[in-house]
Amino acid sequence: MNCQCFTEENHIIVNCSGKGIERIPNVLVPNAEIVDLSNNYIKELSDVDSVTWRNVTHLRLSNNLISIIWDCVLLPNLKSLWLDENRLTELSYGLMNLIDVSTEFQIYLSRNNWNCHCHSLFTKDWLLRNRQKIADFSNIYCIRNSSSVSFTDIIQMKNAQKLQK
After folding, report:
1. What is the per-residue pLDDT across 87-132, written as a single tens digit (0 to 9) for each?
2. pTM of the predicted model, to two decimals?
3. CA dihedral sign, ordered 7, 11, 12, 16
4. CA 35 to CA 80: how far, in whole Å?
5. What phi and psi values does residue 82 have, to the nearest 5 degrees?
6. pLDDT tens for each residue of 17-31
7. Contact 12/31 with Cβ under 8 angstroms?
8. What is the β-pairing status of strands 4-8 and 11-15?
9. Rounded to an integer, what distance in angstroms lies between the CA atom of residue 65 and that of residue 10?
């Protein structure tokens, strides 16, 4: 794949940004911790070898074509995940749960096609619990009734409802 592999501050980094990759590679440099697959043509996250990918703590997938994240993909040591500028409409239950239970997790979600209708997984309660973990929270918008609504506005609506009670 013609990726660059190097060590920086004792971290093994694999940089595959902008290499025309269409799916997550099966093979990684042993003990890779930081993997950059941004600016490619990846459409879904599936079939990741948990042994090969077990040490990955930072995964950059910005600016791809991702519309599906399968729960089987979740990496046990993942701490930072960039999913901004893709084609996502919802997060999987597994990923949302990982974000919920991890105290250190950080995720980037802006520039996607998020749903925020009443049956959306992005409930106001989930957003309230996790807004500190969403690094680009103030730049995330979702579609509700054909109009764009910011996650910040959703939180403010929740807070206003609490004040009215």
Report:
1. 998 888 888 888 888 888 999 999 998 877 666 766 677 878 898 9
2. 0.87
3. negative
4. 11
5. -100, 110
6. 999 999 888 778 889
7. yes
8. antiparallel
9. 31
